[in-house]
Amino acid sequence: MPSLRSIARNSRRHNSRAAKSHWIYATDEVLELYGITPNTLTAWKKQGLPAIRGVTDLYLGQDLNAFHTWYRRQKSRPLTLTEVYCVHCKQSHQLQINSYRIERNEADSPRLIMECPITGGDAYKFISPGEIDLIQREADLNSRNQEAHYNVDRLGSKTAIFPSVDAKTKNSDNFLIRRDYQIYLMGAEGFSQKTVIAALRHIAQFDNFTAHHNYSAITRDTVIAFKRALEAKRSTGTSDQCAASTIVHTLLDLKKFFHWLETVAPAKPMPKGLSIYFAPSRELSALAAVREEDRTTPSLEQVRTMILAMPAENFVQKRDQALLAFMLISGVRISALLTLQLQHIDLERRSIRQDPRVVKTKNSKAMQTAWFPVGDDIEAIFINWIAGLQTIHKNHSTPLFPRATDPIRRERSPDEIPPLLDQGTVRKIIKRACATVKLPYFNPHAIRRTLALLGNDLCNTAKLRKAWSQNLGHEHVATTDHYYAKLDIDEQLAAFDDIRTNVLRHDAHELVRLLPQLTAKQIAAITQVARGYTEADVLA
């Protein structure tokens, strides 16, 4: 029986989204990413996986993903009637006599279950009632039809070659420079992988525009033409329309890259002063600073209404409701949300310990976060979720919001509790919840802006404002005010209505203060005006 390591390696090898698209991987990084041996990687290259030769072979993430998508399609085939696919070892297995069973129930279709000969766990597939007799007859005879034999033979074929068109057009010199820049941003500048990937994506965009010309051959006219091409994408009539902020970020990343080429990079001499031509125009920078319409910030009552209206009948529904309740209670970022564990929650003190050794906080900052006062009913949803989770899983490292697992996987590995990993899942949860109460969709980060605006209403001293800002993970109150607590137009106009009301109240208070100093005739005149007389009537 293969080792657990080989099983895990086999399950990762077929992941067509394991690599970051614009990340450049060295050989040892590819081996670690997929858990494979050098011989396997050599076989992949023989089948067409593009590699750039250097001190070590280099691989672009999107090439790795495209290769595995192609590889999976080459190997995919329909299961025969008497075959079952195991999700653990990633292989299909033929039924043998006395090695399978069929489970029937009223709620679901019958399930054909067999023991995987590699992992020893159960593998299953759903079948129709009409197939039961046919399966039993085929399994007892241990026979396969001609098509099944053809499919199995085709599965083992290694004659196909990955048709990589991009590999022929890549500039190996540019590729090696981009790898050096990737190492520089991570090692010398200390940027996160997410930030580095964004910069690499913009550099790849420029490479495609120049048809992969050497960086040393780039001229001022090339840069200006690229900027014009980006500006053209602002038009609403284009299919690849870009926002002003996207264009500004692209140009600034390229400006930094070419400045690095001019001053730091161990490459061919670059024309001096070329980087300054990547600077975005003042008009474009001003447009990029304008708040975009899709940055919807819901009110506290809207978020509360949405959460309380969510269904909570089964495990997934309860988890989704508790997840949004926790986002409102804590204001944590989405990356931290998906990495928190039970051990980080202190119900007694109503606080969250964000330990950067486990939790993905911004800039790996350690934080102690108190629960925001958003309502006892919202807190109760989260507390009930924690209580239910603790009855199922006693381990303190249990993910705060686990993934739903199928019964067979849970029965085989009861201690394995996979967390939610995809941020897109959280966005889908919010989208469904918004649709339930007919609210416009807002992104997960918008809840932090909701809490920042709530702080404006509740915090009337400098100490309280500092505590509120610090609870959001900000070192300076100005960060909260500048980036999170901006009012939208409706709130701004409503605030000025309040200001006008306050002015009238101020005048009324001033009048009350002056009353003791007025003569009887002056008081009578003011009284007549208040009762509706015109100024002419009063003077008469």
List the keywords:
540 residues; mainly alpha; Multidrug-efflux Transporter Regulator, Chain: A, Domain 2; 5 domains; 3-stranded antiparallel β-sheet; 24 helices; 52% helix; disordered N terminus; Integrase_catalytic; DNA recombination; DNA-binding; DNA_brk_join_enz; Integrase_recombinase_N
What does this structure look like?
By secondary structure, the chain is mainly alpha-helical. The chain folds into five domains: 4-75 and 159-165, Orthogonal Bundle (Multidrug-efflux Transporter Regulator, Chain: A, Domain 2), CATH 1.10.1660; 83-143, no CATH class; 171-289; 300-466, Intergrase catalytic core (hpI Integrase, Chain A); 502-539, no CATH class. 52% of the residues lie in helices and 7% in strands. It is built from 24 helices and ten strands. The strands form four sheets. It has a three-stranded antiparallel beta sheet with strand order 5-6-7. The chain has a three-stranded antiparallel beta sheet with strand order 8-9-10, with no helix packed on it. A two-stranded antiparallel ribbon has the order 1-2. A hairpin with a 6-residue loop joins strand 6 (111-115) and strand 7 (122-126). Helix 19 (446-458) packs antiparallel against helix 20. The protein is flat, with a radius of gyration of 32 Å. Mean pLDDT is 81; it is low at 1-13 and 143-159.
**Biggest sheet, spatial arrangement of strands:** 5-6-7
Silhouette: flat
Multimeric organization: single chain
Largest sheet: 3 strands, antiparallel
Q: What is the CA–CA distance across the termini?
A: 112 Å
